[in-house]
Structures
1.
Amino acid sequence: MFNPQNFISQKMEEIKKAVGNEKALVALSGGVDSSTTAVLGFKALGEKLEAVFIDDGLMREGEGERISATFASLGLKVQTYSMAEDFFKALKGLTDPEEKRKAFREAFYQSLAKISRGKGAKWLLQGTIAADVVETSRGVKTQHNVLEQVGINPAEKYGFKVVEPLKELYKPQVREVAKALGLPAEITERRPFPGPGLCVRVLGEVTPERVETVRKATRIVEEETAGLLCFQAFAVLMEDKATGLSEDKKRIYGEILVIRSVDSTDAMTAQPTQLPWPVLEKITRRITASLPSVTRVLYDLTGKPPATIEFE
């Protein structure tokens, strides 16, 4: 049986032994994986570890502020780096899902390389978990935080070595470790969010305007499903468009949003959530009222397999 306290003790010793007297970074995204890695790392390394949040322009509303406030309450300071321009430049013109994921990965690690050089950090702690490694190695999709399995040596390419204390765990075990470390419920019970952020929820080319549409829709979906038991619930912006009517009843050719909500434990398989009809109706009303460019709101009923949880 998995014992989170034994796991914490073991991984703290492994982190200490790997990093030694050198400096390390941990990149926070606000999710349970990176947050657990950060707290585990601070317990092991103390002031030798610095936490950074890369604002890539692809996060949920208010994510940077929420991360800073949450970790300040835990006694940990997080330094924010605004790099949205670099990420949108890397993604410009790309429409293929794998190309987008790889472009995000390169922008992400180049950003960390720049930060680590400035701080003299030789190590990166990151929250890679077992599902990330399995999906990448099986060719399902490239997870941005999996490097060595795809032939990338981070020390040679980016100038730092990587420690991945959670990579043998699946999501339920990570949540157990997070609770054992004393993280608040707002982190331990938080729904998963993709590493590449909203760029995998914008089908086709990723632009600031399209990301803003799906960001606003995602906030609505999360608010309206907050009290419901579902593993993930979010919005996806399609590449196609559909005819609709404006407020003054004129024809417009607008955007299509798909709502996706699934039940799962480890993200390896999933089934669509049977959201109550009134919830779906309210989500649709709020989205179309606040986003006039949207003329269709659809609901995805596909499980995993044959689908993946994310659209890209």
Note: The longest strand covers residues 232-245.
2.
Amino acid sequence: MDTTAEHRAPARLRATPSWLITQTATHASRLASEAFDTVGARRYHYALLAALEEFGPASQAELGRRCAIDRSYVVEAVNGLAENGMAVRTPDPADGRRNIITITEAGERELRKISERLAEAQDKLLAPLSPAEREQLAQLMARVLDHQTRG
């Protein structure tokens, strides 16, 4: 008796990209959460640090837009980063009502540490794929996401 067949979803589902994406996302989320937990980080912290490193200092509103994070969560996450010395807030010289957030050296070190753990999680998730297939999958998924999020 083929025990693997007993645990497989129906072929109709396995041929549906939206179903496959959802099922894979569940595993991806679990692996990423485990990676973040190993270094005491959170997804929002990683996203904000990555945006600050790549794009430079930004307002909280801009960070929220770039990372697709609700404004209230951005405030909470930036508070945590600032409290731990990973980012600093300074008044925006162009608009005193706004703060500009900047990554610190400690934030850059933390980002590297989180990135290493996250890379390990990606390796676990994508283990059956070659490096070229991984790159192709990322490109295709980015293209679908870009199409869905165009305003």
Note: The radius of gyration is 19 Å.
